[in-house]
Amino acid sequence: MQNQELWQLLEETGVYTTGHFQLSSGRHSGEYLQCARLLQWPDKTELVARAMADRLAGLCPDTVIGPALGGIIIAYELARALGARAIFAERAADNQMALRRGFTLRPGEKVLVVEDVVTTGGSVREVLDLLGGQEVEVVGVTSIIDRSDGEVDFGVPFFPLITMPVRSYPPQECPLCQAGLPVTKPGSRK
Ligand SMILES: [Zn+2]
User: Fold this and answer.
1) 76 Cα to the center of ligand 1, angstroms
2) Distance, CA 166 to ligand 1 centroid (Å)?
3) CA of 81 to the centre of ligand 1 (A)
4) Residue 125 belongs to a domain
5) Is residue 187 part of a domain?
6) Is 76 helix (H, G, I), strand (E, B) or coil?
7) How far apart are the CA of 173 and the centre of ligand 1, in A?
8) Prior bond of 59 cis (ω within 30°)
């Protein structure tokens, strides 16, 4: 799948929206990417996951792991395309990322981390911290969309499918706030 087709899918499914948004990082933006709008379509998600898998097959991961909730579906579809296992990390009672529901990792297992959209990379970093406590080999990080503008360094290779820097501002410098537009918080993180 070519980049042009990927963009077309994101446009068709309404992943890209404009307005006045508070991102999970706390910054404000006039643009927002809601990957759930793509992920609600299994057929389209499968195409995207295959495009990711084509570029990642050389990593030969045993397991693909994503942070809940955004990373669960894409981890599952990517694992299917790579012939790997899919698990997810989620917050435990102490708000720390954890493996629950009986998910385990064996020593030496090759693990690929996937997220739907990387902005600050916070959730991915928490999953990497979690994996750091296990004797696994982290082969890389991937995401459907990279909005980090090259600002993230996970300490392992990062292979985003689509790179899309999005302009954002600290709230006190946000031109949309200054224009008096109401802000919405579209993210899933509290
Ligand atoms: Zn604002």
Assistant:
1) 34
2) 14
3) 39
4) yes
5) no
6) helix
7) 8
8) no
> Does residue 183 belong to any structural domain of this protein?
no
Residue predicted with more confidence, 26 or 103: 103
Distance in angstroms (rounded) separating the CA atoms of residues 146 and 123: 13
Q: Which domain holds residue 133?
A: 3-178
Give residue-wise pLDDT tens across range 146-186: 988 888 999 999 999 999 887 889 999 999 999 999 999 88
* Backbone phi, psi, residue 72, to 5°: -70, -50
Distance 27 CA to ligand 1 centre (A): 8
CA-nearest of 74, 119, 66 to 97 is: 66
Rg of the chain on CA atoms, in Å: 17
Inter-helix orientation angle 42-56/70-82, to 10°: 60
> From ligand 1's centre to the CA of 69, what distance in Å?
25
CATH no. for residue 171?
3.40.50.2020
**Centre of ligand 1 from the C-alpha of residue 174, in Å:** 4
Would 186 be classed as within a structural domain?
no
Into how many domains does the chain fold?
1
Distance CA 141, CA 124 (A): 8
Contact in structure between 139 and 154 (CB atoms under 8 Å): no
